[in-house]
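Why does residue order matter? Because the sequence determines the fold. Keep that principle in mind as you read this record.
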Amino acid sequence: MTPGARAQAAIELLDEIVAAARAGGAAADTLIARYFKTRRYAGSKDRRAIRELVYRAIRRAGDPPVNGRAALVALAREDETLAAAFSGAPHTPAPIDPAEAGAPAGIVPGWLAPLIDAEEHGALLERAPLDIRVQRSRAARDIVAGQLGDAVSTPFAPHGLRLPEGMAVEASEPWIEGLIDVQDEGSQLIARAARAGPGMTVLDLCAGAGGKTLALADDMEGQGRLIASDSNRDRLSRLQPRAQRMGVGAVETRLLDPGREAAALADLAGACDVVLIDAPCSGTGTWRRNPEARWRLTPGRLAQLSELQARLIEVGAPLVKPGGALIYAVCSLLDAEGADQIAAFLARNELFRADSEPFAAGRPRGAGKLLSPKYDGTDGFFVARLVRS
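Structure:
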């Protein structure tokens, strides 16, 4: 493909991504994979170049652009080589008119900028590291590091390794043998905050595909009761194959009906040593991995998420036994989803108190800790550990 054809393909993809962001449709990675599946003529170099163009344009525009052309025109005004691709020849974009407006540059959408500490902004779109968690019940971290070559230990997570960008993890021997799982260091620390151990009863309330569930199982050493629940059937169905690959057994799964979670979990009332709530959230802490997520968030959507988070805390709290712990986490840097949620819960529930040190990393934020790309090199997370009296 010519540079012009690549630019035109990038515009078409950006149009789809912008439309999906507005309508709550598929993620950018999914749309890109679908696009190339129907265009077999695009070689591997073309696909890489187009993908790079698309993500450069996404990272540049903090607010949603009006369309894909506006996003790429703005990029072309800063890149003479790309601007030359707008030639108007067949299968290329029309020439750029001097008066044509491109998408404004920015990191954080305008309405969100005051809600995220300004010093955090610059790191929100940097390249995210590739972290893995070593299943300590099956292998030692240093041995796995030796098998993977250039791996280095994560600074805070005791069983984590950081790999070079682009390493084919799933082709490696440790992966094939079920010794490792891909997991950001921040997510590993959330599981560590639970302090799960052998013989405990542990509930992962919003388990999703089970990454943290598997980390909890490793800490429990196969002894005790571990329940993973979620309202998303597709995500929860991925847990058992992952558990099987890593040699993890005896994980109970429960598919929940949204709004009726409490009834489905009533048998666990006052019985859990640990309840982990990794609640659905805005994902502002994961923009390095999903930069177009900035375009999906609206004030209305944030309000809906905050309401859901408060309800899930109320579902999980009665399940904690006296002396047990409630771990609340969101992959967000917004106080509305983190510190403010926990402050409101503690104000209306005298049975719980905050443990100010769920882990050593991060900075204090209200009754919990805030992990961030800038200060910790992890995805952004708010984490609070609450203990029932």
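The mean pLDDT is 95.
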